[in-house]
Amino acid sequence: MARSSLSSSSSTAVNTSAVIMMVVAMVAMAYFPYAAADAVTIVNQLGEDLVLHCASANDDLGVQTLVNLQEYGFRFRENIWGSTLFWCDFTANGYPPHRQDVYKGDRYLADTCWCTSCNWVVSPKGFICNGKQQPSWTWGGSN
């Protein structure tokens, strides 16, 4: 009989520990900035189809074709080191191919675009991030 109550106590302790760990994980995800979901949105304002292929070191998001004024977006979680990087390769008729970093870790993008929600517009003038024209990021230029 002593064995059965010891086994029951042990099982209860394990279940309690598991519940505590789950609660701690949920609180951490809610309150630590690296756990918050970040987002990238890209809007095509070229006046013609835009083909893009976005990826990170860990995720290939596939090829997307956006008609004029169409939007594409994705959400992700910043890694704990703040070094998440997403880039996209852009192609469109009449424009040279272009690779653009659309999110760099620590919510800091090339000295000009601070964001956790990075909203990009692709136009004939170039690339605009959160309303800021990116002068060095024009078609055919490199970032």
From TrEMBL:
Keywords for the protein's UniProt record, in alphabetical order: Membrane, Secreted, Self-incompatibility, Signal, Transmembrane, Transmembrane helix
InterPro entries, A to Z: Self-incomp_S1
Domain of life: Eukaryota
Main location: secreted
Record-annotated membrane-spanning stretches: 12-34
Subcellular location: Secreted
Entry keyword annotation includes Repressor: no
Tagged with keyword Membrane: yes
Family the UniProt entry places it in: Belongs to the plant self-incompatibility (S1) protein family.
Name of the protein this chain belongs to: S-protein homolog
Organism: Sphagnum jensenii
